[in-house]
Amino acid sequence: MDAPLGPAIDTRPLYPRERAALLDLLRSLTPPEWAAATVCPGWDVHDLAAHIACDYLRRLSGSRDGHAGAVFEPDDTLPTFLARTNEESVRALRQCSPAVLIDLIAHFGPQLDALWSGRDPHGPADLDVSWAGSPERPSPAWLDIARDYTEFWVHQQQIRDAVSRPGADGPELMRPVVDTFLRALPHTLRGEERPPGTAVRFEVEGPAGGTWEAVHGPGGWRLRPPAGAADAAARVVLDQDSLWRLASRGITVEEAGRRAAVSGDPALARAAASLLAIVW
Asked: Among candidates 24, 107, 40, 34, which has minimal Cα distance to 249?
């Protein structure tokens, strides 16, 4: 089940480290910084911290306790459902002080760590990762857990951007984010039919970067260990900071295109450079 997405990533040991950096950051913020606008439309730092706290609560409620939670409304798609429920939960937590939000994250984070530590990473995911999987290929648990790790890390970076406090972006914490996001490459290329063996190479520059390749075959695109650059029909090179911002839509595809170096098959390179690793 995992083969098309490459080898499993175990992000579970990184949850406490990422959260410790987040809590140190939040405890250092001044009242004006808590009110600073973020890249998330309509949300300030307080709202983004509330969203992180809600994510902990929802994963524990659903994955540990089996609670169904909010339901789809008749006209909902997955993006509209998530946007609506996220906004509802953030609005409710605007009543909470920064100190209470910090306490929520600090209290419930270790409970989520304990939940994931007992999970078989190669078993089925509680929530499919729509930007990497397919109906014919359900997501493995390790990808679901890694997806959540990337969300927490990205939201921390968005807070850091808002208050001009860089950090938590060393290779140990960032490399798994980049690696997880590149698991979206086969799904990103799904609309491009090519002869079997056609390869696309994606190189991410920086200490947290590396090289990923997708190859087309009878079952569609799948990741493979990188071969020589000359074997690729298309190649994209992008720095690590731009990659995570592109994948989370902190920058547009057009801006990423200006930052990237692309070569080879134009349609394949264009598709790869539109990589998306969130529900959009």
From this structure: 40
